[in-house]
Amino acid sequence: MVAIIIAVGGFALVMRDVQSERLAAAVEQDREGGLDEVLDQAGVSAERFCVFGPYATRQQIDDALGFSWPPASDTGIGLTDTQELVVAADSNRVVAWAMVSLGTAADLVGGDYRCEQLA
């Protein structure tokens, strides 16, 4: 089981782009400016910001995003209880995503696992 989690995690890291790496770093660091500051630091421009909790399924992610995002299965969120998945998305595509430590992202959207429309 551990080998599967490591393999999925390694594959997910290869899939991430630089923007997603910056998103992870911005979410993980201390910040006072909230979600706007995080997105500015990451260089991410999107219509929505979503946070998914441990064991989220691809179906739950697709439903919240409002479109199918097949790579959701490869993020590893469905197999972990120590991380959250953050997704910046437009109306029909994911702009950036990152896996972050549990408890670091939900506060950006009011302390819950959900999507927030951005201005």
Walk me through what this model shows.
This protein is of the alpha+beta class and 119 residues long. It has one domain. The chain has helices spanning 2-15, 18-28, 34-42, 58-65; strands at residues 48-52, 83-89, 94-101, 115-117. Strands 3-2-1-4 form a 4-stranded antiparallel β-sheet, with helices on both faces. Helix 2 runs antiparallel to helix 3 (34-42). The longest helix has 14 residues, at 2-15. The chain is globular, with a radius of gyration of 13 Å.
Labels describing this entry:
35% helix, alpha+beta, 119 residues, single chain, 4 helices, 4 strands, 19% strand
Short description:
This protein is of the alpha+beta class and 119 residues long. It contains four helices and four strands, in the order H-H-H-E-H-E-E-E.
